[in-house]
Structure to design on (279 residues):
């Protein structure tokens, strides 16, 4: 990794040494630091972003990849809290398309989420083709319909009711979903116009954490744009019950990846004018 420091621009503040998680920099306060362990750099960008003098020349961050923070655009704590308080899983999704630029913003927000050791292993796959969404819906509904038929059949029903009461209680809801599905809706996907799949390599220790941090970023950006976003717990459960190859094919993710979070997106019929306090 090539890292150089322009001594003429350096303010000798030592911030790069303080913020670097990999101890790449060393030196005495008041003097120009040196990049003594460039091979240990994880390209997190902390040093470049904290340098007010712009003296660090980093191989991973050429000039066109560095931008000044426009603090006048940052939300106040009150504005951000209001956004989080008002966020809802609004399932009144309409037939309106999500503007392409809005969808790009949502995906970009996901990529700005932190990851363990700056591994950046999270992939965000966008599925918006109606036929692809329908295939996922059909696979989910068929799986749960078969499962429900077995668990509520006469021989198994007493066991399910006694030992799997939560699953037994879901049977009526699944039947309602099945009827909506037969009527041409996509109830499992909440009739969303796009599905975001957050995936990471199988065996990666922080796949779940990193993907759900990315999900949270995307969810907040979607809310800011007035786009409905719903966590796809039912579909996620179905994917866990399917063979890995079938899952990667359905979701269009790399064969080496595993989906850790799914988000359905769409334009709502209306927005909630109130929120109920939870704290």
């Amino acid at each position: 990794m090539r890292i150089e420091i322009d001594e003429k621009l350096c303010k000798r503040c030592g911030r790069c040494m303080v913020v670097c998680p990999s101890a790449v920099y060393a030196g005495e306060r008041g003097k120009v630091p040196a990049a003594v362990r460039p091979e240990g750099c994880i390209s997190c960008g902390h040093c470049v972003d904290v340098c007010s003098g712009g003296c660090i020349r980093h191989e991973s961050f050429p000039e066109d990849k560095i931008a000044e923070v426009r603090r006048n655009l940052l939300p106040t704590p009150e504005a951000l809290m209001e956004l989080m308080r008002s966020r809802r899983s609004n399932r009144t999704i309409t037939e309106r398309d999500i503007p392409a630029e809005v969808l790009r913003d949502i995906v970009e927000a996901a990529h700005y989420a932190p990851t363990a050791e700056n591994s950046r292993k999270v992939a965000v796959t966008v599925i918006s083709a109606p036929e692809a969404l329908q295939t996922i819906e059909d696979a989910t509904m068929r799986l749960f319909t078969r499962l429900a038929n077995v668990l509520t059949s006469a021989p198994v029903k007493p066991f399910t009711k006694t030992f799997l009461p939560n699953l037994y209680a879901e049977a009526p809801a699944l039947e309602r979903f099945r009827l909506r599905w037969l009527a041409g809706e996509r109830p499992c996907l909440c009739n969303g116009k796009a599905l975001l799949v957050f995936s990471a390599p199988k065996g990666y220790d922080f796949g779940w954490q990193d993907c759900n941090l990315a999900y949270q970023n995307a969810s907040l950006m979607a809310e800011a744009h007035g786009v409905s976003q719903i966590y796809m717990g039912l579909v996620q459960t179905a994917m866990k019950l399917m063979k890995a190859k079938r899952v990667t094919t359905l979701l269009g993710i790399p064969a080496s990846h595993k989906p850790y979070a799914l988000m359905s997106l769409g334009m709502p019929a209306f927005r909630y004018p109130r929120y109920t306090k939870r704290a």
The chain has eleven helices and eight strands. The longest helix spans residues 130-151. The chain has a mean pLDDT of 93.
